[in-house]
Amino acid sequence: DEEHLHVDAQFGGVDQRKIFTFAEKYLPQLGYTKRIHLMSPLVPGLSGGKMSASEEDSKIDLLDPPHVVKRKIKKAFCEPKNITDNGLLSIVEYVIFPLCCPPKGGLLVTLDSGKKTKTYTSVRDLESDFAAGEVHPGELKDMVEHYLNILLVPIRAAFHQRRQERSCVDELKPWRLDLCVGTIEKAEHHPDSSGYLILHLND
């Protein structure tokens, strides 16, 4: 897929490391360009366990509107004092904190039903307070929802603007097509794999 999508790099979780290693080894042997592979830590799903693209409520999509973000966050598994299997804290560590915190700033959390606030300049401090019960799951959820929507607003806006621009494009014309025609002159088995063929083309 990397070759046919014409990408220079692929991003995935550390659970994809074996297929990435496989691709780096065999793509050049097939005559394809070796790609760059970027990996990130696995973030637990919002419903507990591994995040899954096929499980809608286990993840936040970039184009989820605010009311959907709120619904997913409210339903998220967030056991009091549990920092080990907590998808919300992982989102704070790997997404919100790196993107929302200025060098000398921090994350603002509203506590005690709005009676006070506290600013966290360290993810570890937030985890410590959550583990001690000083930050309630509902307070953590409100904070995550707030900052996620701040991050998603410009992404949604750019997507909708792009979609409007595409809707204004004229209907498909023949001159907009890029057709490539070639003749296969010879086909032979790949020396390193019985499942592949080497095709010699005459453009």
In short:
This protein is an alpha+beta fold and 203 residues long. The chain has helices spanning 17-26, 66-75, 87-100, 123-131, 137-167, and strands at residues 9-13, 36-40, 107-111, 116-120, 183-190, 193-202. It is built from 5 helices and 6 strands; from the N terminus they run E-H-E-H-H-E-E-H-H-E-E.
Q: Uncertain segments of ≥5 residues (pLDDT<50)?
A: none
Strand content: 15-25%
- Strand tally: 6
The CA-CA distance between the termini, in Å, is 23 Å
Structural class: alpha+beta
How does the major sheet shape up?
2 strands, parallel
Strand order of the largest sheet: 1-2
Protein name: tyrosine--tRNA ligase
EC number: 6.1.1.1
Keywords: Aminoacyl-tRNA synthetase, ATP-binding, Ligase, Nucleotide-binding, Protein biosynthesis
Family: Belongs to the class-I aminoacyl-tRNA synthetase family.
Question: Can you tell me about this structure?
Answer:
With 203 residues, this protein is an alpha+beta fold. The chain is built from 5 helices and 6 strands; from the N terminus they run E-H-E-H-H-E-E-H-H-E-E. It has a two-stranded parallel sheet. The protein has a two-stranded antiparallel sheet with strand order 3-4. A two-stranded antiparallel sheet has the order 5-6. Helix 3 packs across helix 5. It starts with 8 loop residues before the first strand and ends with a strand. The mean pLDDT is 86.
